[in-house]
Write a structure and sequence with these properties.
single chain, about 350 residues, alpha/beta, Rossmann fold, six-stranded mixed sheet, 7 helices, 15 strands, about 25% strand, globular, binds flavin-adenine dinucleotide
Length: about 350
């Protein structure tokens, strides 16, 4: 199709959408921030660029018996399959497959109703319920293990950016005040010299969406590797997790989920609690040989009441904008499902 699509955003969502759209359109990414080595990302100036600060791993959130979460589960499944195919073809892509282990102290119905047969129907490969004898302590009421993936975020996003540009995609570093501003950028910014549609993958979203809020997350990057990704839900509502980043990227130990907290500074006290909780839960931590603290991480999950906005809109002058923002704490794990949906809706628009 001879149409030019501009994707606003070079986080995991913008990059994935841009690659999918590239199969049928001329695509330019316009963004303020682009992927770069993790060590070069500024923790204050770039705190609103969430993708560097994610773990990032896939943690299944199964649909409830009444079907809630079914769309997200389908997105996660599409992403899981895509990640495995990418890992096989592009071993440099920053993706590592490993076991995912879960220990829940207060499991909700989505989990208590999750049998091994149901997990098979939901295509959760390698799923096995853990027996109480396999729990780390008696506060854990439910546990499971499955096959999952983790990425080293900036190795992965740099890989996506390279794949996009090697596929003929163009990039422009610009900061926008409004989605409509894209249509006023100089024509020479774009491959076809015009803009036919826009994908708004700006993370928190450009413009005033009253449903958006941030969920601050503090984690700690340690230099040590870890053989699995582990998630523990504590009865007080807090979480303990590890996300091995692979590719010599250490392991992220987390993490907090602080709604509407715009704070930028990590707390040492929180760090010590995160590391202490993880040590208690993960019996494999060898005393004195783990936790080379590299950095405290503070990020802002772009969260949205009612879930991510994946929706087309005709704005001023009839311009078509496909929104894809508000992915909260699940941007990586839903990315290829979102990208597929976005590409389909944009194709439908031009059909
Ligand atoms: C501590 C923590 C742990 C996490 N762990 C996981 C995990 O394990 N698994 C998982 O799936 N997710 C995880 N996440 C969430 C995940 O990181 C986010 O959902 C994801 O990065 C969001 O990607 P995005 O592309 O939507 O937004 P972003 O990465 O924020 O990218 C937004 C893009 O839009 C551009 N942009 C924004 N405004 C403008 C503007 N005005 N003009 C021009 N460009 C603009 C930015 O420059 C950037 O390029 C975690 C997040 C945190 C903070």
């Amino acid at each position: 199709m001879s149409a030019e699509i501009v994707v606003i955003g070079a986080g995991v969502i913008g990059l994935s959408c841009a690659i999918k759209l590239q199969a049928n359109f001329t695509v330019t990414i316009v963004a303020k921030d682009f992927p770069a080595p993790f060590e070069t990302i500024d923790p204050i100036a770039q705190i609103n660029y969430t993708s560097p600060w994610g773990g990032a791993h896939n943690r299944w959130v199964p649909p409830s018996p009444s079907g809630e979460n079914a769309r997200e589960h389908a997105f996660a499944l599409t992403t899981w399959k895509h990640m495995r195919a990418l890992r096989d073809v592009n071993p440099e892509s920053g993706i590592t497959f490993m076991k995912g282990i879960e220990y829940l102290e207060a499991p909700s119905i989505e989990y208590t109703s999750l049998t091994e047969a149901r997990a098979k129907e939901l295509n959760m490969e390698g799923f096995r319920l853990l027996q109480p004898g396999e729990f780390p302590d008696d506060r854990v009421k439910w546990g499971c293990v499955y096959d999952t993936w983790c990425v080293n975020p900036m190795v992965y996003c740099c890989f996506l950016l390279r794949k996009f540009t090697m596929g003929g995609g163009r990039i422009r570093k610009r900061e926008l005040r409004d989605v409509a501003e894209v249509f006023a950028l100089p024509p020479e910014d774009f491959g076809l010299g015009r803009v036919d549609a826009v994908v708004n993958a700006s993370g928190y979203g450009i413009g005033a969406d009253p449903n958006m809020y941030v969920t601050k997350g503090q984690t700690c990057l340690v230099g040590d590797p870890c053989p699995a990704t582990l998630t523990r839900q504590n009865a007080d509502g807090s979480w303990t997790f590890s996300v091995p980043r692979g590719y010599d990227g250490g392991t992220v130990i987390g993490g907090t989920k602080e709604v509407d907290d715009w704070g930028t500074r990590p707390s040492e006290e929180v760090r010590e609690k995160l590391l202490g909780d993880f040590r208690e839960t993960w019996p494999g931590v060898p005393a004195g040989r783990f936790y080379t603290v590299i950095a405290d991480i503070v990020g802002r999950r772009p969260t949205r009441k009612g879930g991510p906005r994946i929706e087309g809109e005709a704005i001023k002058d009839g311009h078509f904008v496909m929104h894809a923002y508000g992915l909260g704490g699940r941007g990586y794990e839903l990315s290829w499902g979102v990208a597929e949906e976005v590409a389909k809706r944009v194709e439908d628009h031009f059909a």
